[in-house]
Amino acid sequence: MAESTYRADTQLDADALAFHMKPTPGKLSVASTKPMATQRDLALAYSPGVAAPVRAIAADPDTVYDYTSKGNMVAVVSNGTAILGLGNLGPAASKPVMEGKAVLFKRFADIDAVDIEVDYTDPEKFIACVRGFGDTFGGINLEDIKSPECFEIETRLREELDIPVFHDDQHGTAIIAAAGLINACDLTGRRMEDLKVVLCGAGAAGLTVLELIESMGVKSANTIVVDIDGVVYEGRPGGHERLNRHAIKTDKRTLADAAEGADVLLGLSAAGVFTKDIVASLAPNPIIFAMANPTPEITPEEVKEVRNDVIMATGRSDYPNQVNNVLGFPYIFRGALDVRARTINEEMKIAAAQALAALAREDVPDEVAQAYKVDRLQYGPDYIIPTPFDPRLISWVPPFVAQAAIESGVARRPLEDSEAYKQVLARRLDPTAAVQQRITASIRAAQKTIVFAEGEEQAVIRAAHAFQVQGLGKAILVAREDVVAANMKELGIPAGSLEVCNARLSEHNSEYADYLYERLQRKGYLRRDVQRRVNNDRNVFSACMLKMGHADGMVTGVTRHSNVVMKDVELVLDPIEGSRPVGVTIAITRGRSLVIGDTSVTEFPDAQALAEIAEVTANAARRFGITPHLAFLSYSSFGNPPGERTAKIQQAVEILDAQGADFEYEGELAADVALDPDHHKLYPFSRLTQPANVLIMPAIHSASIAVRLLKAAGGATVIGPMLVGLEKPVQIARLGANVTDIVNLAGIAAFDLNKVPG
Ligand SMILES: NC(=O)C1=CN([C@@H]2O[C@H](COP(=O)(O)OP(=O)(O)OC[C@H]3O[C@@H](n4cnc5c(N)ncnc54)[C@H](OP(=O)(O)O)[C@@H]3O)[C@@H](O)[C@H]2O)C=CC1
Ligand SMILES: CC(=O)C(=O)O
Ligand SMILES: [Mg+2]
């Protein structure tokens, strides 16, 4: 192995070297999307079969999008002349950055990207090279090419290629900075037209940021450009055409002169260029975007030493407000590729900037805050743009870009159905999306009323509000009105937007107490005991609402353990006749969905209980659109190895036989046998016609172990446990569940897993 003379100075640097080296050098590999297992696969993928798509494309060149990966493949191209803010270090040194961009394309937008480092600094040679291979890709992302050469390179390639060519350092950066600036203006009560802007760093990124914000309203007379030689004033010798366009008449000559009284200071230059004196001299409530990478022009800590009225952004992920082009290029290319745009034009860029700015003003899912290890992210000075790990970006930004492409006439194909497009986008990232979309479509149409039992909790109030705002149904909070009002005010949720039901004051209070007394009087409860439960126990009160038809479903469990909650609920509600409550979990792994029961209610089910669990779980699977092929799991298959614990499983199969269950089931089976498509070879008598997709566990402990193993070691996405089999739909969240979990469970309550699939 070659020894580098470079020595890592910090632990982060050492970690980064190890990360890039092990277990396989680099960050990228190529995966096949087709099987290559058999002689027939080979005959189709390569000679002779491949001749068919060859002829088809020769006859109609546009079909290249149908028969090859072109439509979802981007080249990240650099010559390494301006690698981040590190300077001209050549093509090989730029490779880690370009591989990095490629994996970000994949991670955030499911775009396949490869890095290509071109060893030409001469623009003509570089252009000729990229023109030569360009059309084999769906798009070209130019990266870290120094200015001014980058301007000519991009302009010419845009003219000469019929696909999007996008210099990310120019336009990606411009779009994100513009999005941040829209919101910083909103928060400081400014209009773009009035802003006094100073740009420091007149390179690829800087000039393009300036030009985009000028196209959005900033006046060129109000902007001053500063480069390494100071202010770019009219008549200054040297420079180049693109730079000199921004020269203004002024006596100011230095960055310090220019910054005095400015509203906005944009840095796209180099580390440490902004001094504390410069920061102090800016206008009140100034906006500073110090975007040089990896070290900004000034750090937020240094700014805070001078003043506290600044909206501050950097290009880094370890400070609030990361203005970095990672927020843009994946989604901009996604939108452009999906309509086979010929280019990425100004309209598409402005649409992306406005979409990002608008998303920052929406309520932020808790898991995004958790990814950044903060309690909450809320629109304000420390959160002016979305964070890169926001899962909403993929379905939010590309539709705006694609629509702008269509409206500006550069799309090759239309978007048939924009709602369906958003769903396709969401599925690109999240394997649970298909299941969730089925639920969402159904409950939007049904508009059920869901009672949120722990209605005074802030997370529950936010979830109830989100449930309503997303059009999933109507929410009722069981809570005291004054407590909810105070919480809603603090959360910025409009007063009166949620119905609140105070158990003690409810007009139905005595009706519920009568019902409960009737039900429990022979189980040791006095009238005053049940009255107390109705008044004080929100789970009991909420379950009574369901029982009496005053709500359709209920969600609870955020503040108490699920077994305690279950006992409260069972005081009021029974299982469906002939059935039992069952915890059902869906684990989605490598394209396979497994529906697992019982993951939360019955600790050691006997044969009868196992048969009932199988019925309930199979029905829930059907409700999710999954045809059940059910296996009762064990450590053995069909009596081998023998053991006393398998008897109850065999009896459960006999019970289902006697009942004439209307789904496919088999047992007992070991997990690997149940999931093996070839298990018939060993067990030709097995009734399973396909690998099992519904798994009935012999006891809760094995269910819990299996689900956690699937999640931790198998990388499965897990939904649940969901409660099925009670006479009314109740969902119990895990203790401390976040807003997204609660909204999802409210959705499942509204979906009603007991409903017989039609
Ligand atoms: N946050 C983000 O998303 C992004 C950040 N960046 C960062 O922006 C910076 C510039 O990148 P890019 O535009 O691609 O590179 P360029 O090389 O095209 O531009 C850099 C410009 O900054 C100028 N400059 C360097 N030092 C100073 C200084 N002390 N005062 C004023 N100007 C100075 C350079 O002048 P000269 O040519 O005379 O040396 C050059 O014009 C880099 O740090 C990069 O990491 C870039 C893209 C995205
Ligand atoms: C983020 C980026 O592209 C840069 O700093 O060059
Ligand atoms: Mg770059």
TrEMBL record:
<dbReference type="Pfam" id="PF00390">
    <property type="entry name" value="malic"/>
</dbReference>
<comment type="similarity">
    <text>In the C-terminal section; belongs to the phosphate acetyltransferase and butyryltransferase family.</text>
</comment>
<protein>
    <submittedName>
        <fullName>Allosteric NADP-dependent malic enzyme</fullName>
        <ecNumber>1.1.1.40</ecNumber>
    </submittedName>
</protein>
<dbReference type="InterPro" id="IPR042113">
    <property type="entry name" value="P_AcTrfase_dom1"/>
</dbReference>
<keyword id="KW-0511">Multifunctional enzyme</keyword>
<dbReference type="GO" id="GO:0006108">
    <property type="term" value="P:malate metabolic process"/>
</dbReference>
<dbReference type="InterPro" id="IPR012301">
    <property type="entry name" value="Malic_N_dom"/>
</dbReference>
<feature type="binding site">
    <location>
        <position position="169"/>
    </location>
    <ligand>
        <name>a divalent metal cation</name>
    </ligand>
</feature>
<keyword id="KW-0479">Metal-binding</keyword>
<dbReference type="InterPro" id="IPR042112">
    <property type="entry name" value="P_AcTrfase_dom2"/>
</dbReference>
<comment type="similarity">
    <text>In the N-terminal section; belongs to the malic enzymes family.</text>
</comment>
<dbReference type="InterPro" id="IPR045213">
    <property type="entry name" value="Malic_NAD-bd_bact_type"/>
</dbReference>
<dbReference type="InterPro" id="IPR036291">
    <property type="entry name" value="NAD(P)-bd_dom_sf"/>
</dbReference>
<dbReference type="InterPro" id="IPR037062">
    <property type="entry name" value="Malic_N_dom_sf"/>
</dbReference>
<dbReference type="InterPro" id="IPR046346">
    <property type="entry name" value="Aminoacid_DH-like_N_sf"/>
</dbReference>
<dbReference type="GO" id="GO:0004473">
    <property type="term" value="F:malate dehydrogenase (decarboxylating) (NADP+) activity"/>
</dbReference>
<feature type="binding site">
    <location>
        <position position="144"/>
    </location>
    <ligand>
        <name>a divalent metal cation</name>
    </ligand>
</feature>
<dbReference type="InterPro" id="IPR015884">
    <property type="entry name" value="Malic_enzyme_CS"/>
</dbReference>
<dbReference type="Pfam" id="PF03949">
    <property type="entry name" value="Malic_M"/>
</dbReference>
<feature type="binding site">
    <location>
        <begin position="83"/>
        <end position="90"/>
    </location>
    <ligand>
        <name>NADP(+)</name>
    </ligand>
</feature>
<dbReference type="InterPro" id="IPR012188">
    <property type="entry name" value="ME_PTA"/>
</dbReference>
<dbReference type="GO" id="GO:0051287">
    <property type="term" value="F:NAD binding"/>
</dbReference>
<feature type="binding site">
    <location>
        <position position="293"/>
    </location>
    <ligand>
        <name>a divalent metal cation</name>
    </ligand>
</feature>
<dbReference type="GO" id="GO:0016746">
    <property type="term" value="F:acyltransferase activity"/>
</dbReference>
<feature type="domain" description="Malic enzyme NAD-binding">
    <location>
        <begin position="170"/>
        <end position="406"/>
    </location>
</feature>
<dbReference type="InterPro" id="IPR012302">
    <property type="entry name" value="Malic_NAD-bd"/>
</dbReference>
<dbReference type="InterPro" id="IPR051674">
    <property type="entry name" value="Malate_Decarboxylase"/>
</dbReference>
<feature type="domain" description="Malic enzyme N-terminal">
    <location>
        <begin position="25"/>
        <end position="158"/>
    </location>
</feature>
<feature type="binding site">
    <location>
        <position position="143"/>
    </location>
    <ligand>
        <name>a divalent metal cation</name>
    </ligand>
</feature>
<dbReference type="InterPro" id="IPR002505">
    <property type="entry name" value="PTA_PTB"/>
</dbReference>
<dbReference type="GO" id="GO:0046872">
    <property type="term" value="F:metal ion binding"/>
</dbReference>
<keyword id="KW-0560">Oxidoreductase</keyword>
<keyword id="KW-0521">NADP</keyword>
<dbReference type="Pfam" id="PF01515">
    <property type="entry name" value="PTA_PTB"/>
</dbReference>
<feature type="active site" description="Proton acceptor">
    <location>
        <position position="101"/>
    </location>
</feature>
